[in-house]
């Protein structure tokens, strides 16, 4: 049997008569990179907001490691090990790269959000912070203000701060959005690298990225699961082709790992 880390059962979100997410049954296997894809307005980000409890489901269940977390609050979800990065790079612009990662590590000291703590008390975290920066290829940027980083490097920093919170499940929301080809390649390789020993659920528009690194893909359309499987399986699915291209003769084969 598959080792399922995250499961949803008939997960549904309605807004004043509009159903944004409709009876979504999702199973994310431990150790996989699992992608949520679909046309604009398919319900992908709403689904993420439900999983991290920034939205409350209208009905349905969310289970994490077999435990029902449907009623949990966002902070509880994060403490359980479900950590999300956002579509828009979420870093502190006037802090250095090292300081950003160190804030993520403060959880270990039990001093989260205590910005008035002396830098001396936080210094003990520097070694771990530098190791995380090395993991994402940012060690040479440790003293750089994060506002001065190129866009792709900011996304790498965001992944480092996400890793600092020791996620059991990482949720990446459009990690390559707005990037040029070189940055897309760098961040894709980074996701592949940091996925070792971790589980990642990601929303992603770039089909080359999805084809290259994802073990399993769920396709959403109008809030419902249209298809699920490997990239090769969903790329051949006539319903998926039609949803993306408006014709069953077109498809996703244009993307190559």
TrEMBL record:
<dbReference type="InterPro" id="IPR003593">
    <property type="entry name" value="AAA+_ATPase"/>
</dbReference>
<dbReference type="Pfam" id="PF00005">
    <property type="entry name" value="ABC_tran"/>
</dbReference>
<dbReference type="GO" id="GO:0016887">
    <property type="term" value="F:ATP hydrolysis activity"/>
</dbReference>
<dbReference type="InterPro" id="IPR032823">
    <property type="entry name" value="BCA_ABC_TP_C"/>
</dbReference>
<keyword id="KW-0067">ATP-binding</keyword>
<keyword id="KW-1003">Cell membrane</keyword>
<keyword id="KW-0547">Nucleotide-binding</keyword>
<dbReference type="InterPro" id="IPR027417">
    <property type="entry name" value="P-loop_NTPase"/>
</dbReference>
<feature type="domain" description="ABC transporter">
    <location>
        <begin position="6"/>
        <end position="247"/>
    </location>
</feature>
<dbReference type="GO" id="GO:0005886">
    <property type="term" value="C:plasma membrane"/>
</dbReference>
<keyword id="KW-0813">Transport</keyword>
<protein>
    <submittedName>
        <fullName>ABC transporter ATP-binding protein</fullName>
    </submittedName>
</protein>
<dbReference type="Pfam" id="PF12399">
    <property type="entry name" value="BCA_ABC_TP_C"/>
</dbReference>
<keyword id="KW-0472">Membrane</keyword>
<dbReference type="InterPro" id="IPR051120">
    <property type="entry name" value="ABC_AA/LPS_Transport"/>
</dbReference>
<dbReference type="InterPro" id="IPR003439">
    <property type="entry name" value="ABC_transporter-like_ATP-bd"/>
</dbReference>
<dbReference type="GO" id="GO:0005524">
    <property type="term" value="F:ATP binding"/>
</dbReference>
């Amino acid at each position: 049997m598959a080792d399922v880390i995250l499961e949803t059962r008939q997960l549904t979100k309605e807004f004043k008569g509009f159903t944004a997410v409709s009876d979504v049954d999702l199973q994310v296997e431990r150790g996989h990179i699992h992608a949520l894809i679909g046309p604009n307005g398919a319900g992908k980000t709403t689904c993420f907001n439900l999983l991290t409890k920034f939205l409350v489901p209208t009905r349905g269940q969310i289970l994490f490691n077999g435990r029902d977390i449907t009623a949990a609050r966002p902070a509880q979800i994060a403490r359980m090990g479900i950590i999300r990065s956002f579509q828009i790079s979420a870093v502190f612009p006037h802090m250095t790269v090292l300081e950003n990662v160190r804030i993520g590590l403060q959880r270990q000291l039990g001093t989260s959000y205590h910005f008035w703590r002396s830098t001396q008390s936080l210094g003990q975290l520097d070694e771990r912070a530098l190791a995380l920066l090395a993991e994402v290829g940012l060690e040479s940027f440790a003293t750089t203000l994060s506002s001065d980083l190129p866009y792709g490097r900011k996304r790498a920093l965001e992944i480092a701060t996400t890793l600092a919170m020791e996620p059991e499940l990482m949720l990446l929301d459009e990690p390559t959005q707005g990037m040029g080809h070189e940055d897309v390649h760098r961040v894709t390789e980074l996701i592949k690298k940091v996925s070792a020993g971790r589980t990642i659920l990601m929303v992603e528009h770039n089909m080359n990225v999805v084809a290259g690194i994802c073990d399993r893909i769920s396709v959403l359309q109008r809030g419902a699961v249209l298809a699920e499987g490997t990239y090769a399986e969903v790329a051949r699915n006539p319903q998926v082709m039609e949803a993306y291209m408006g014709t069953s003769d077109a498809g996703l084969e244009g993307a190559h790992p």
